[in-house]
Automatic annotation (TrEMBL):
Homotetramer. The lineage of its organism: Bacteria, Bacillati, Bacillota, Bacilli, Bacillales. Coiled coil: none annotated. The gene is nnrE. Residues 225-504 form the YjeF C-terminal domain. Catalyzes the dehydration of the S-form of NAD(P)HX at the expense of ADP, which is converted to AMP. Together with NAD(P)HX epimerase, which catalyzes the epimerization of the S- and R-forms, the enzyme allows the repair of both epimers of NAD(P)HX, a damaged form of NAD(P)H that is a result of enzymatic or heat-dependent hydration. The keyword Zinc does not apply. It catalyses: (6R)-NADHX = (6S)-NADHX; (6R)-NADPHX = (6S)-NADPHX; (6S)-NADPHX + ADP = AMP + phosphate + NADPH + H(+); (6S)-NADHX + ADP = AMP + phosphate + NADH + H(+). It comes from Virgibacillus salinus. One of its GO terms (molecular function) is ATP binding. Belongs to the NnrE/AIBP family. Belongs to the NnrD/CARKD family. It comes from the Bacteria. Binds 1 potassium ion per subunit. (6S)-NADPHX binds at residues 57-61, 130-136, 159, 326, 377, 444. This is Bifunctional NAD(P)H-hydrate repair enzyme. PANTHER family: ATP-DEPENDENT (S)-NAD(P)H-HYDRATE DEHYDRATASE (PTHR12592:SF0), ATP-DEPENDENT (S)-NAD(P)H-HYDRATE DEHYDRATASE FAMILY MEMBER (PTHR12592).
Length: 506
């Protein structure tokens, strides 16, 4: 599934009409009919449906929806909330077609009239404003949006809730709060932002006939799906052996946080790694080994229970390294992080406290020979960028892209919608997972899945997308079948990986 900005969507529409030759009236017909099909799956025949239309393409889609549903026997009223002179072009064509089919269009901007029609309707279809909106609304539209939010029983928005910005970077706005949004062709960026996603309510997408190559050539953002996971996840050969599935090293842990490295090591093995070695302090080893007997252990140098760089590690023996979980922020530990960055040429995954130590080493990271992967949560990403967390969360796609391109790293920005970004700026959003993952240890588990995936026969980008997918899917299955978002623990997610693999038939 593609994820677009407003400008990208406009460019694709123009290409489709001007270069491909698909008429705008036909595109509007396609859009209205596709949305009508989704609306029919939500509403019931006795429902009284009020379709609110504005100017532009969104209003034109509303006229097509009204004609389609009216022709199928639904109870429809159409309220045009802009003056007649603002209905032009393709929208005017479809308004006139609606009238020719026996439909009626009420033209009103009076709040009292609109309030009564909204109050007396079972379903409101919001086709007022499209993806070109940014900033605060002006009256009378602002007042109409308030009436919808305060009065409507159930709201279905067309493409985007009216007033909601399609793009990131905008924090001041007024928007319809939809119960359901039917998005045209490609999801908009704001569907994946913490401060805007909830306005969509439940959402899905419909195809309106835009050419696939136009989307592929213009959009570098997408969402990972079940089918993409099945297609890209390497299949195990019947004569496979542990040596061909990767030998990974996990470096971390101290006397205060011995569980982190154990969870990462155990997860990596559960997710498919062939061999895992955990490098940690002498006191942590028996604790970790009691939770993960299948790993081997490497005793590293320590100072007062914290890792240091006194031990020479032969990184050439490993296919990938995961670094940082539970290691603490002592300076002596920072020396070990520097050693790893400088000496390891294999893929390097840095998480948790490792990110704190990584900040002064970013120039070294950008010159590494092997792929570098960071897995920050918003607080850690904000620290690396020297911005506030609210600043980051308003523009997570842009910030991730700038950082990834500048330092030649893969960024896995964790959150409700985890954003994976490559050094070339390609991005994917992971939509699996739930609130049960908002608990200590979840990041350590994700690092373990990434370590396992990165050593399989797939690209780094596919490995990261598949790792985030599996991590979230495990949590989803566990909450659906035997746990709740309250009691779910990181160790449960490790065990749930087996069910993901089994049910998705990889």
């Amino acid at each position: 599934m593609f994820i677009v900005t407003a400008n990208e969507m406009y460019d694709i529409d123009r290409y489709t009409m001007n270069e491909i030759g698909l008429n705008g009236k036909l595109l509007m017909e396609n859009a209205g009919r596709a949305v009508s099909g989704k609306i029919e799956s939500i509403i019931e025949k006795p429902d009284h449906i009020c379709i609110l239309t504005g100017s532009g393409n969104n209003g034109g889609d509303g006229f097509v929806i009204a004609r389609t549903l009216l022709n199928k026997g639904y109870h429809i009223i159409v309220v045009q909330v802009v003056p007649n002179q603002k209905i032009t072009g393709d929208s005017l064509f479809h308004k006139n077609l609606l009238l020719s089919f026996g439909g009626t269009v009420i033209v009103s901007q009076q709040p009292s009239e609109i309030y009564e029609m909204v109050r007396n309707s079972d379903i409101i279809v919001d086709a007022i404003l499209g993806i070109g909106t940014s900033g605060m609304l002006r009256n009378p539209i602002a007042e109409i949006v308030s009436i919808i939010n305060d009065t409507a029983n159930f709201v279905i928005s067309v493409d985007i809730p009216s007033g909601l910005p399609a793009d990131e970077g905008i924090s001041d706005f007024q928007s319809v709060q939809a119960n359901h949004t039917v998005i045209l062709e490609a999801a908009k960026v704001s569907a994946f932002l913490q401060h805007t996603a909830s306005f969509y309510g439940k959402w899905d997408t419909v195809s309106i006939g835009l050419p696939l190559d136009a989307l592929q050539n213009n959009v570098k953002r997408g969402s990972w799906t079940d089918e993409m996971f099945r297609q890209s996840m390497p299949k195990r050969e019947t004569d496979a052996h542990k040596g061909i599935h990767g030998r990974g090293l996990v470096v971390g842990g101290n006397t205060e946080m011995p569980g982190s490295i154990a969870m990462t090591a155990k997860t990596a093995l559960r997710a498919g790694a062939g061999l895992i070695t955990a490098g940690t302090t002498e006191k942590v080893i028996p604790v970790a080994a009691s939770h993960c007997m299948e790993a081997t252990y490497l005793k590293l140098g320590e100072t007062n229970g914290n890792l240091n760089d006194d031990t020479a590690i032969s990184f050439k023996s490993f296919d990938a390294v995961a670094l940082g979980m539970g290691m603490g922020r002592q300076q002596v530990t920072g020396n070990l992080v520097r050693q790893t960055v400088e000496e390891a040429t294999c893929p390097l995954i840095v998480d948790a406290d490792g990110l704190y130590h990584l900040k002064p080493l970013l120039d070294l990271v950008s010159n590494r020979k092997g792929p570098s992967i960071i897995t920050p949560h918003p607080g850690e990403m904000a620290m690396l960028l020297d911005v506030s967390v609210p600043e980051l969360l308003v523009k997570p796609f842009a910030y991730s892209k700038v950082f990834a391109e500048k330092y030649h790293v893969y960024v896995v920005l964790k959150g409700k919608f985890t954003i994976i970004t490559t050094p070339s700026g390609k991005q994917s959003v992971n939509r699996t997972g739930n609130a049960g993952l908002a608990k200590g240890g979840s990041g350590d588990v994700l690092s373990g899945v990434i370590l396992a995936m990165i050593m399989q026969k797939q690209s780094v980008f596919e490995a990261l997308c598949n790792a985030c997918f599996v991590h979230g899917k495990s949590a989803d299955k566990l909450v659906a079948e035997e746990h709740s978002v309250y009691d779910l623990m990181a160790s449960d997610v490790i065990d749930g990986i087996a069910e993901v693999y089994r049910t998705l038939e990889v």
